[in-house]
Specification:
The chain contains two helices and ten strands; from the N terminus they run αβββββββαβββ. The chain has helices spanning about 1-15, 95-110, and strands at about 35-40, 45, 50-55, 60-65, 70-75, 80, 85, 110-115, 120-125, 130-135. Strands 1, 2, 3, 4, 5, 6, 7, 8, 9 and 10 form a ten-stranded antiparallel beta sheet that branches. It starts with a helix and ends with a strand.
């Protein structure tokens, strides 16, 4: 415990601190974390479905209604580039597969992100289509 406190003190002295007491170099970008998708191109996610995104570093993973997926998520400023997405190939009902295809297609085309609050993330394509998600608690 003492070692952890000493390390924290050294980091704060070396890098300074923010209003939250966390060195600015150690703060997570606002888009990182676990997100639950609520809207895919103005259509609400089906009630019996789950679409998620976990963004950490340059990786995005999650559940796309039926299958899990993984890909690169590169951010420069508020610009985003999503690399090739790999997914599992489970069979699902037609409605969930359609929702999944819509989500993954949009995700591949994302070019911009906006954190509307600490708990709301919008990913936007160049033609104005959006994925809207809430931070998972």
């Amino acid at each position: 415990m003492f070692e952890m406190l000493a390390l924290t003190t050294l980091l704060l002295q070396a890098f300074g601190s923010t209003a939250h007491g966390i060195p600015p170099q150690l703060e997570r970008p606002p888009y990182e974390g676990q997100w639950v998708v609520e809207i895919i191109d103005r259509i609400e996610v089906m009630p019996d479905s789950q679409v998620t995104m976990r963004i950490e570093g340059q990786t995005i993973t999650g559940l796309a209604s039926c299958n899990t997926y993984r890909g690169r998520f590169t951010v420069t400023g508020t610009s985003v580039q999503v690399g090739e997405l790999l997914k599992t190939m489970k069979a699902c009902d037609t409605a969930r597969l359609s929702e999944e295809e819509d989500f993954l297609s949009l995700l591949r085309d994302v070019v911009h992100y906006e954190v509307q609050s600490r708990d709301s993330l919008a990913l936007e394509t160049s033609d104005g289509k959006t994925i809207v998600a809430k931070r998972e608690r």
